[in-house]
Amino acid sequence: MQKPANSPARNTKVMNRADLTSRLVARLKNEEAVVGGIGNTNFDLWAAGHRPQNFYMLGSMGLAFPIALGVALAQPNRRVFALEGDGSLLMQLGCLSTIATLKPKNLTMIVMDNGIYQITGAQPTPAAATTDLMAVAIGCGLTNSTWAADEEDFERLIDRSLTSSEPMLIGVRIDDKPGTGATRRDPVQIRERFMLGLGVRESL
Amino acid sequence: MAAADGQMSSSGPGEKAWYEIVLQTLKRNEIRLVPYVPDRVLTRLIKELHADPFFTTFPTAREEEAVGIVSGAWMGGLRGAVLMQTSGFATLANVLASLALPYQIPLIMFVSERGTLGEFNYGQSLVCRTMRPVLDSLAMEHHTATRIDEFEFIVDRSIKQAITTQAPVALILSPLLTGGKVFDK
Questions:
Q1: pLDDT by residue (tens digit) across A91-133?
Q2: Residue B13 burial (10 A CB sphere; 0-12, 13-18, 19+)
Q3: CB distance A70–B104 less than 8 Å?
Q4: How many Å apart are CA B21 and CA B162, to the nearest integer?
Q5: Closest chain B C-alpha to A15 CA, distance in angstroms
Q6: Distance of alpha carbon B43 from alpha carbon B168, whole angstroms
Q7: A85 contacts: CB under 8 Å, gap ≥ 6
Q8: Tens-place pLDDT, residues B12-34
Q9: How far apart are CA A32 and CA A122, in angstroms?
């Protein structure tokens, strides 16, 4: 997605959601939990290869970070990742303040920012041309919020977050490509497999 | 009269107040995580929750945010409940229909009832009328607690049913139980 020249994230490379999601998943070696926000965000998480510790949302736009916060509070010794779109985050900006106040040391948030509601027809978000989401997050008190400059920088930030002692937010500018997979929409199975993957349930 | 000052729940000598019953029943059922969007009627309960290290309790910016948090926590093995008022419940239809119900998450909600029995704000009285139709249209379990002598039974049994059947429940705290919020103060 093209951003105006005065866009606050103008110095960062435009990357691809599916590629970045695959790079993230490839670096997870310790059964880290991953919560995928609605639409393309979790389609690409699904396409990166299902893991027992993945949770896929099928609605409730904007709740990827709150859901991941809940998992992080429940399992403080497990690193929890949340993948969210920029439009989704705009629905629930208040959660950034909640997370900044609670300071879970095991939560890493990633915002996939293309400035559009890709899945509904690529309409621009109200923030697209004006709002720097990392500046918003820093203003909310999430001081460890930063745009990834390119893929290498993204991987470096992910690695840093694995041992971080405070919540991290990573912003990535992405293109306007749709998701590459199609999550199987079976909410009970998604939830039950996730709980098995987190060791909360025992298989029958 | 006592009821007008929210004292109705502690009328009898030696009788537990409604908020003490909530606190003890949450504890007995191992419910530790209690995010909330506050209400004046809930003030004392919120204060007691903060004072008790058993609980992790904090405000959220929106009610659906709190629902997301306790849903994630449940999946991670930590039980929670959400506190809100009537107008907050009115913001939840989407998250109930797209997260709590289809994923079968035992979401436990305490809703302080505004909008009835002495409401002074017309908007609150209107939004209150949407609450039970929404709950009924989703076929959700809900109870309105009006009497202190029934309250522990309702809360304890409802929590246990929510967890064993993996279904949400709304416990509506009537002004008859809590005294409510009366007139412009």
A1: 999 999 999 999 999 999 999 999 999 999 999 999 999 999 9
A2: exposed
A3: no
A4: 18
A5: 29
A6: 24
A7: A37, A38, A39, A40, A41, A111, A112, A113, A114, A118
A8: 667 899 999 999 999 999 999 99
A9: 32
Residue type, B169: V
Q: At what angle do helices A94-102 and B63-75 cross, to 10 degrees?
A: 50
Of B59, B75, B97, the CB nearest to A200: B75
- Is the minimum CB–CB distance between B103 and chain A shorter than 8 Å? yes
pLDDT of A24-78, one tens digit each?
A: 999 999 999 999 999 999 999 999 999 999 999 999 999 999 999 999 999 999 9
Here the tokens at position B48 are 């007691």
Average pLDDT, integer, range B85-99: 98
Cα(A39)–Cα(A46) distance, integer angstroms: 11
Is the distance from CB of B168 to CB of B162 less than 8 angstroms?
yes
* B5-12 long-range Cβ contacts below 8 angstroms, 24+ apart: B5/B179, B6/B41, B6/B178, B6/B179, B6/B180, B6/B181, B6/B182, B7/B179, B8/B148, B8/B176, B8/B177, B8/B178, B8/B179, B9/B148, B9/B177, B9/B178, B9/B179, B11/B148, B12/B148
Q: Report the 10 Å Cβ neighbour count for B119.
A: 20
Strand partners, A169: A109, A145
Confidence (pTM): 0.95
